[in-house]
Amino acid sequence: MDDNLAVRVTGLQKRYGEKRAVDGLDLAVARGEIVAVLGPNGAGKTTTVEILEGYRRRDGGDVRVLGVDPQTAGRDWRARIGIVLQTSNDLAEATVAELVHHFARYYPDPRDPDEVIDAVGLREKARTRSRQLSGGQRRRLDVALGIVGRPELLFLDEPTTGFDPEARHAFWSLIRGLRADGTTILLTTHYLEEAEQLADRVAVVNAGRVVAVDTPADLGGRQARKAVVRWTEGGAVREERTDTPAAVVAALATRLGTEVPGLQVLRPTLEDVYLGLIADAEAAPAPATAPDAVDAAPALTATEAAR
């Protein structure tokens, strides 16, 4: 195991009956980085993350999280990870302070609960019952519960679903602060802007496989990042893909005059690149699949996962 890797996944497989939810997935996450996992519904993101968290058994492949196989990990390993689920409504009558202090007792070396409450911006809500919090405040409480154990690795599942723009940006600032403190973060999200703002690298998953991994700026490669210069000439719309749009525009201005009719310079967004990668992956022939390692195993129950 590379000591610099918080997560290493090789050839991961998970099957439900005849459906291969995860089909030979490979992924590596370095310590201290934020990796965003993107993909359409049914791509295998949630199943993969549940396997990494130790909540679901795999059918094949090798998985190491903080140097340990999650499928056989014990309490000591579980104290080293933090999990923020997409939804949670536990202990709705307890106050923010009561919950954070209560969860801190589960860990051998927790952060100071009051410092955690301050870090997530809930000091003014410390005596408020969790059921009375707004969606954004409840999400901050979820993060507080996820980080109070001082995790080395934090899993965030769709963390800002339902947030208004102001709450989303405030939450991003919180996540950046955790990264600055050295926490490794694996993030699943449907918000492309969120991945672009937070992630050091983005992994695109489709049909149970990682089809691309790179920084948000370089995802898809140089060809996917070419600008498109579009203009009207001779009554027809024309366009050219280029690495040097300024030179193309200058040439057009020389030929057609200072005002180039219908001139547009379009640069692909992360969303454009992501959609292109998914379309290419779905159009490609299905790769040969490895033979099943074992029959599909059921998900671990909460009690099993806690052992």
What does this structure look like?
This protein has 307 residues and is α/β, with parallel strands linked by helices. The chain has helices spanning 45-53, 75-78, 96-104, 113-119, 135-147, 165-180, 192-198, 221-224, 245-256, 270-283, 302-306; strands at residues 5-16, 19-30, 34-38, 60-65, 81-84, 153-157, 184-188, 201-206, 209-214, 227-233, 236-242, 264-266. The chain has a six-stranded mixed sheet, sandwiched between helices. A three-stranded antiparallel sheet has the order 2-1-4, with helices on one face. Strands 11-10-12 form a three-stranded antiparallel sheet, covered by helices on one side. The radius of gyration is 23 Å and the shape is globular. The two termini are 24 Å apart. The longest helix is centred in the middle third of the chain and has 16 residues, at 165-180. The chain folds into two domains: 5-220, P-loop containing nucleotide triphosphate hydrolases (Rossmann fold), CATH 3.40.50; 226-267. The protein has eleven helices and twelve strands.
